[in-house]
Design brief:
2 domains
């Protein structure tokens, strides 16, 4: 019997976008190329890879990049802590590469896919297998602004870029920047996740009567620091029904509902029954909002370089607008939601079959190994 082709995904745990889009590529691989096995190494929550086809042979918690460190909220970056963590990670890189290369050989991996840890390039070279990157930014581009004026900055960036240059190709998603860090670049469509549950079923699971005329608004800020903001926004908007993730010990206004995602109700399913979402801007949220055409209201972030690209592009692809930080934190959302409702539908309609395109290209690379 022929040896089964096997792909190892190294997935950044910084935010959920890397993991959710990688999971969608893996799901599509399972549907269209069932003869390929998949391994995943990531620091993202393993639940993001649950309920995938049987081709998943294992998901391992692993630190394969250092990401960025958020500051006093998820809307800003602690530059000093980010640089310190990066320096610590780079000191351990050689050790990580040797250990991971041995893992690649032991598991008989045919192809490495990185979204988008640079160390995967060095692991691939050490193990003697090709590596393909999938993403919308590279870490050297993200770190440039944080390393400005740092004595070790140029050395750090050079190490990251050397690792990226060892990758065979870069399947570059929309909302990306120009780069020469990876030799071959192939632009691919947006990776989005499908809506799987009927709106009636989602509303029932959320405990919302179909006859309820209040406008459902999802607040997709996932950490508990925002519960006070949600409480203020709900109190100021009695004609709206505010949905939020997680649970909270304090009492929130009656026009709020907790959302618990599971295999029967994913994030796109919830978006699909909402009139708008209030969330920080990120690839995963933006892609899912474009797919479901759910209007997006986003507070500003500080020191997130990807916003240089996403903030001006978002209104071209869906009804999206910023909300000033003071109004967001005070719960004064209503005038901004009304402005969002009045915005015209976007003119541009991007292709959203990126998961299938990437899956086919990766399967072909795997077969050619």
């Amino acid at each position: 019997m022929a040896e089964k082709n096997r792909i190892l995904f190294y997935v950044s745990g910084h935010g959920f976008g890397h993991a959710t889009r990688s999971a969608e590529v893996i799901r599509t691989l399972g549907e269209n190329h069932p003869g390929i096995g998949v391994l995943v190494k990531t620091s993202a929550p393993q639940r993001l890879f649950a309920n995938l086809p049987a081709l998943i042979e294992g998901v391992t918690v692993s630190e394969i990049d250092s990401g960025v460190v958020e500051g006093d909220s998820s809307l800003n970056v602690d530059r000093q802590a980010t640089v310190a963590r990066l320096g610590d990670f780079l000191k351990r890189c050689d050790e990580i590469v040797l250990a991971e290369a041995e893992y690649v050989r032991r598991k008989r991996v045919s192809l490495i896919v990185a979204d988008i840890p640079y160390v995967a390039g060095e692991i691939a070279e050490q193990a003697g297998v090709p590596c393909a990157a999938v993403g919308n930014f590279t870490w050297d581009w993200i770190y440039e602004q944080h390393l400005a004026g740092n004595g070790d900055g140029e050395a750090y960036l050079a190490r990251i870029r050397r690792a990226y240059r060892k990758m065979a190709c870069y399947l570059r998603l929309p909302f990306s920047h120009d780069t020469d860090s990876i030799p071959e670049i192939v632009d691919v469509p947006l990776i989005t996740r499908p809506v799987k549950s009927a709106p009636r079923d989602v509303l029932q699971k959320l405990g919302i009567d179909e006859r309820d005329r209040r406008s459902p608004i999802l607040c997709a800020m996932r950490d508990s620091t925002w519960f006070d903001v949600i409480a203020r926004a709900a109190a100021a908007s009695p004609d709206r029904l505010l949905l939020y993730f997680g649970s909270v010990e304090k009492t929130l206004p009656a026009n709020t509902r907790s959302v618990v995602l599971d295999e029967r109700m994913a994030f796109p399913d919830v978006l699909n029954v909402c009139d708008a979402v209030v969330s920080k801007l990120g690839y995963g949220t933006l892609a899912d909002c474009i797919s479901t055409q759910t209007p997006l209201l986003f507070p500003p972030r500080s020191n997130f370089r990807e916003d240089e690209i996403m903030v001006p592009l978002a209104p071209r692809l869906l009804r999206a607008r910023p909300i000033p930080l003071h109004d967001f934190e005070s719960g004064d959302w209503t005038p901004h939601l009304r402005e969002l409702e009045r915005m015209p539908q976007p003119v541009d309609s991007p292709a959203m079959n990126g998961a299938a395109v990437c899956a086919d290209m990766l399967a072909k690379m795997c077969e050619e190994c």
